[in-house]
Design brief:
The protein has 461 residues and is α+β, with helices and mostly antiparallel strands. Helix content is 57%, strand content 15%. The chain has a five-stranded mixed β-sheet with strand order 6-8-9-11-10, covered by helices on one side. Helix 6 packs parallel to helix 7 and helix 10 packs antiparallel against helix 11.
Length: 461
């Protein structure tokens, strides 16, 4: 193997490892990442800002604040060391008046205490940069026992140095040993960042709002509802997406209108021919052959109405608030009038926005399908903050599990299954699912606790 092949192999191996680490980190942080666009956009703005300010603050504190404080503290300690030298090499100044005068020139208040033990160490502040720096400078330049207090007085620093025959006490201005303007820098940095963040949040909210309106309009259209006040707004890309949605919506509506108009014409023509058949059969008279033909014509008329109803769907009807508990009670009454035992129960807020006639027809098809093959029917409705669910259970023979999706196909009739019916068209379940999906929901079939079939209709509210 050549050197080039070895290098390529190493590069592929490293790339594979990097890809695995990237995938692992992505999966690890996926649970912590927000799912909304607004929250993610805020995170994209906030994280770089926080990282940048953290780096700036660290560099400032490490390179500027610490350096300035260290130099100021070193200068103060150097002045104190000079006073100690004067005290040692000029013993003729018995009352130490000259020493105090020199201290005043250095902006230090100098005093002497009798020889004794140093006070116990006082409480340290949480962020003791001045204590650390002063202690380090005193230990480096003076090398005598000392005690400092940076907490007792806000604008002064007390320093005590153990001498041979006395204790020198010095009061220095805090500003002379500490870079006190650093807090102002941090305050301005955080203040300006907060203002910029507020402006960015308000601007981002205005940019996200058109996207949310577009999502709401698409969701309403998927549920078969109108969004009358929707129009393209926001950035160019958002307006382009909204305009594409409106054009798609218009094409779908025009297609439905054209199909409805065509079916209306076909319905008129076929009904005219069937009416002629009925008139001609009426003129022939009552003979056995005519009775059979009349039954065929009636069956053709019923099949035609079923076909047209399936193809027409629920076009033209407007969604509106509907009391589903009353609708389910009407279905129960219809089932009982036909000699079946039916029960109804509804849980939750009963008012749901649907297309009332078409949705009732969807449920009526399911109830009638159950009534053909069962004696007892149970209708249950449940509405929560997201979905309306209506389940129809019966004690009939049921449908095999492998055929529960097949029965929703148009014109499909099973030989020994539930939807077998003399004169039936095999469109009842297909029409029901078509209506449920036009509301943004669906119908599923399963096993009923009553021993038969359960048909569950779930649509978003």
């Amino acid at each position: 193997m050549s050197t080039l092949d070895t290098g390529l192999t190493l590069i592929r191996t490293a790339a594979g490892r990097v890809s695995k680490v990237n995938g692992w980190m992505g999966n690890a942080f996926k649970g912590w990442m927000p799912t909304g666009l607004y929250a993610r956009a805020l995170l994209i703005m906030i994280v770089p800002m926080v990282v940048l300010q953290t780096v700036v603050a660290f560099v400032f504190m490490e390179r500027h604040w610490n350096t300035v404080t260290r130099r100021l503290s070193a200068a103060v300690v150097q002045d104190i060391a000079s006073l100690i030298d004067i005290y040692k090499f000029f013993p003729q100044d018995k009352d130490r008046a000259q020493l105090r005068l020199v201290g005043q020139r250095l902006q230090l208040v100098v005093d002497f205490l009798p020889v004794g033990d140093m006070p116990p160490p006082g409480p340290k502040p949480f962020f003791s940069l001045l204590d650390q720096t002063l202690s380090a400078q005193i230990g480096r330049q003076i090398r005598r026992p000392f005690w400092i207090d940076t907490v007792g007085k806000s604008n002064l620093v007390e320093i005590r140095i153990q001498l041979d025959d006395a204790v020198m006490r010095i009061f220095a201005q805090r500003s002379a040993a500490y870079a006190s303007n650093s807090e102002i820098f941090i305050f301005w940095m955080l203040g300006t960042s907060s203002i910029l963040l507020i402006v960015a949040v308000l601007f981002l909210r205005n940019q996200i709002r058109p996207i949310l309106r577009l999502a709401d309009a698409a969701e309403s259209f998927g549920k078969g509802r109108e969004a009358p006040n929707f129009r393209p707004r926001g950035a160019r890309e958002v307006r382009r997406a909204a305009q594409a949605f409106l054009e798609m919506k218009g094409r779908i509506e025009r297609s439905i209108e054209q199909r409805t108009a065509m079916l209306a014409g076909v319905s008129h023509d076929l009904r005219t021919i069937l009416t002629r058949f009925k008139l001609e059969l009426a003129l022939i008279g009552d003979i056995p052959e005519v009775d059979g033909m009349r039954k065929d014509v009636d069956e053709m008329s019923a099949m035609l109405e079923a076909y047209l109803a399936f193809a027409r769907g629920d076009s033209g009807e407007v969604a509106q608030p509907t009391d589903m508990s009353m609708a389910l009670e009407e279905l129960r009454s219809d089932a009982e009038r036909h000699g079946h035992t039916a029960t109804v129960a509804f849980h939750g807020l009963p008012v749901v926005t649907v297309k009332p006639a078409s949705f009732k027809r969807c449920l009526a098809n399911l109830v009638s399908n159950a009534a053909r093959h069962a004696n007892t029917i149970s209708i249950t409705g449940h509405r929560d903050h997201r979905y309306l669910t209506v389940t129809i259970d019966d004690d009939g023979p049921g449908i095999p599990a492998n055929m529960r999706e097949e029965v929703f196909k148009p014109f499909l009739r099973l030989d020994d299954a539930r939807n077998q019916d003399e004169g039936g068209t095999g469109l009842g379940l297909a029409i029901a699912r078509d209506i449920a999906r036009s509301h943004g929901g669906d119908i599923t079939l399963g096993d009923s606790p009553m021993g038969g079939l359960r048909a569950a209709v779930r649509v978003p509210v």
